[in-house]
Amino acid sequence: MKSETGFDPALYDRFPTEGERPEGELEELERIWCAPKGWQLLAAVNNNYVGTFYVGTAFLFFVLAGILALVMRVQLALPLQGILPQETYNQFFTMHGTVMMFLFAVPMMEALGVLLLPQMLAARDLPFPRLSAYAFWAYFFGGLCFFASIFFGLAPNGGWFMYPPLTGMAYSPGINADFWLLGIGFIEISAIAGAIEIIVGVLRTRAPGMTLDKMPIYAWAMLVFAAMIVVGFPSIILGTLLLELERAFAWPFFDPTRGGDPMLWQHLFWFFGHPEVYIIFLPASGLVSMMVPTLARTKLVGQNLIVMAFLATGFISFGVWSHHMFTTGMPRLSIAFFSAASMAVSVPAGIQVFSWISTFAVGKPRFNTPTLFALGGLITFVIGGLTGVMVAMVPFDWQAHDSYFIVAHLHYVLIGGMVFPLFAALYYWIPMMSQRALSERLGKWVFWLMFVGMQVTFWPMHILGLMGMPRRVYTYLPGRDWDTINFISTLGAFTIGLGVLLFVIDLARNFRFTPDNDAGNVYGGGTLEWLPTGLYSTRSIPVVKSREPLWDDPDLAKNVEEGRYFLPNSATGLRETIVTSPLRAEPQYLQIMPGPSVWPLLAAIFTAGFFIIMTIQAYKFSFACGILAIVCVLRWLWDTDRLVKEETVDVGAGIRLPTYCTGPSSHGWWATMVLLTVVFMIFVMAMFSFVYLYGVHPRFWTAAADKWSLLAILPAYAAAAGLALLSRHMLAREKTEHWTPGVLFVLAVCALVAGIGIDFWSWLRSGLLPTTSGQGATVYGLLSLESILVFIAVLMAGYISARNGRALIVRPRNNSLDLCVLFTVYAALEGAVTAILTRLFPWV
Amino acid sequence: MRGWTFLLAGPIVWTVQFFALYGIASIFLTSTTTRVLAGLVSLACLAAIAWLFVHVRRSQPVDDPDAWMHRVSLLGIGVSAVAVFWQSLPALIA
């Protein structure tokens, strides 16, 4: 067997170890990972707690958005109902879509990842527990404030897609649209934070021996899911930023009379918006792929094909965004390319469906509640998938566009592809964290009410759509034969509501959270999350030799519990986990993990406050929150990246691992690379916007800023990158003075400031202003993005100086400096490309 | 890195083809130029897929994890070949 890192795989044969473990090890683990009590819960960072809070909050938003839907269905049950006035109805459907997509679906999938992944991978926790806590609290506070806007009549009302010009200042002068644009800012941050956590967690904290072929299929799904967030979310981050800039400062990104274009918004929105469907579906598919083999009592059929399908979906789903724009007058061939891709994306989805059907057919399924939800989801999703292929055909889409047919299609896909699998998962995994499992008897009632309700609500909407009923109307006239069908839909919606209510009652009766005294492996799953666990996860971290280790090694649970595998104790007296290599999961080093802290909570409160308070235009208070958020983040970081006294420790069976690692092998480096990918994607979308606006409105283009200014800008950025790299190089030298690396880094950031300063000055001198035209808006938009990077680099310079002053920048390598250097070099590169592109494009 | 490269190679080729076709159709609209360029890009991508197929087929996996990567890479390349061909059809018939 070959090695990826130099680790000898033969060492795995030392496990399980023989003999008794020393006394007191388990007690020490329990002390180090002790449960928070009372107010300490707010500072908890352990994935059991954060994951449970996260799932609970996402479910709360599901219920709230569902209530909005029920009120809308009452309004539409009969023609000319007066329950919801038009404006309120607009706010309801906008909030229903927005909350379901941004506050329920994506967070719920991340929440389940936080809750399940460490257990499935047998890691002590995800690699950045405080980041998980921050992501959750930002989402919790921001989400509740955002939702509360509906009680004041201030909720957004332009649809969850917020198309300009409807959402521009001319047609939406109030702050409702700003609530959407700024309100989801914290959700974007939360989603990105979660994605970083999941990518690094899946790739770097798997149990030793868990090579990619043995990785749980859910981990594969979450890996692709997180990668899709990293690629897809930047588009909406940029879009919301541009639309808010247009609304606040009249920068005409989307105003065609001044060289902008509303179609640009649609491209930016749907480049995120359609992959979003798969961002939601893939984790659900991963959950189903984990449950089906257990429920059918056999191995998953076509596991390799499913992995390939996940990867293919991750790519192809980014080639279908314009199928939401078939009616906008795009070139015929462009439409045909998107149509082809939209049909192609159904192939990987079909592979997954056939795999589940085959597994059920091969096995001996028990028709318990999770099985029913899995099968119900499969049937519903297939119907939604088929209507999806129908609307992928352009002529049909022209007819069905903006009609209730689309409402039916999207609910079939989302409820079948995500909601039913979610309920299956809740029934299946709740015994892992509750003293009691949920009721089978009630569960079947819940399923049948929801399944029948779903079909009764949404199937008739296909007919309504084909009969011409448009979407997003708050009422309709009698005499169009829509009345009865709408009434039936409303009855169905309340049937779903009854099912969800029963589920809540079941939860109240049976769910009792526990980290260590759970109901256990009720359904007989074979993966690692069903090992006995405490807040420290498993007592020892097993060597994984198959995909379903619990099925293949009946003694595994006992040996793990007796501490016969990796890390049976706390090697340093601190919270820790083993970081493994990305392909073959070979142990590389021991990561020291941070404990409970109140700083992520405070940082999250102020982050949410920054965005929400900005919406109501209390700018001073908002910026104060922003500054406080930064202070809290810096304070939380201050405790991290510290050496412990042991350079290497025994992690079991005499195998020693280092306790500190820098450079490309470290988990911090990986997280920074993922973050920089997000930043890069935002930049790519900004460049696309710049080129796109030239493509549609070249007549608004004027002469660029002085090209000779590049002779000053580019050397400044080159100096920034060079000095930053030099600071890293000098740190490794024995003869280097204590202050040299810090001073060099500060100089690098000064060069960055000089670069962006000259760039701004040069454009201002040219006479082109951001309000002048689409060109001006996008040029200053690009400069603003670079300015944000430079501002962060300035904060980094202060942080590195402070750490340097306290002798925390240690030789020969230090993660804090490494990562700040990485960021600064990237900022310099982006600044240079911005300067060149804006001056030389369109190359004349 | 090499392992990831081949695992994702097929879908990456499809992505390159798709965005090239999108760019070409956006610049040259619905025209003969678009069809010709789209055809050329598609042929180049099919050639790249063929090269990848031959390259991966020739490599010898040394153990189970390697063999798994090998299998999934080939699956990805196979599906991508179909996807690239499918994606090129609009230029010929639309």
UniProtKB/TrEMBL annotation, chain A:
Compartments it resides in: Cell membrane
Pfam families according to UniProt: COX1
Transmembrane parts of this sequence: 49-72, 92-117, 137-159, 179-205, 217-243, 263-288, 300-321, 333-360, 372-394, 406-430, 442-464, 484-505, 598-615, 621-638, 674-696, 708-727, 739-758, 778-799, 819-841
Its membrane topology: Multi-pass membrane protein
Chain spans, region Disordered: 1-23
Domain Cytochrome oxidase subunit I profile: 39-557
Keywords recorded for this protein, A-Z: Cell membrane, Copper, Electron transport, Heme, Iron, Membrane, Metal-binding, Respiratory chain, Transmembrane, Transmembrane helix, Transport
Broad class of where this protein is predominantly found: membrane
Gene Ontology biological process terms, A to Z: aerobic respiration; electron transport coupled proton transport; respiratory electron transport chain
GO CC terms in record: plasma membrane
MF terms (GO), sorted A to Z: cytochrome-c oxidase activity; heme binding; metal ion binding
Organism superkingdom: Bacteria
Family membership: Belongs to the heme-copper respiratory oxidase family.
Name the record gives this protein: Cytochrome c oxidase subunit I+III
TrEMBL record, chain B:
Residue ranges crossing the lipid bilayer per the database entry: 6-29, 36-54, 74-93
Keywords recorded for this protein, A-Z: Membrane, Transmembrane, Transmembrane helix
Domain of life per record: Bacteria
Protein name per the record: Uncharacterized protein
